[in-house]
Amino acid sequence: MPSISHPETADILTVPSTEGSDPDPVRRVVLIDSRPERRAVMGVLVDQCPGLIMVGVAADLDGAATRIREQRADVAIVEIQMPVAEGLATIGALREQFPHLRIVVCSFHDDAATRQAAEVHGADAYLRKPLSARDLFALTVDPHAPLVGSTTP
Fold first, then answer.
1. Residue 83: what pLDDT?
2. pTM assigned to the model
3. What radius of gyration, in Å, describes the C-alpha atoms of the chain?
4. Domains and their CATH numbers in the chain
């Protein structure tokens, strides 16, 4: 059974480390996308990442904020295409409401202006779709990961 520890202001679950050292954190993830089929696909990817657990899904900012607060989520995975202006507003509002939340954008939009706008609004990382579970996991858990990342072609 996962143990609970208290870094910063929120509890995080932990699982035993494969190396026998300190336990690895489990990140609580909320998926935010206006389209249910995209939420389902992203949910499958999250399920493939040991150390990530999906604790909620939302189609908009209000639903996302509720799920994040109720589930004490560590990570929000945001599809910026809600349309883009709404996605950017969601990122900005989440950053303001939840300063310690890791915000990862996953989108088919892959232009410099959109990536820069996501960064300006508070995104921690940006992944281009299609993406791999490995890339998603790396940018979700690494606080030092670059804003833009994807090793999949």
1. 62
2. 0.75
3. 15
4. 28-129+138-145 (3.40.50.2300)
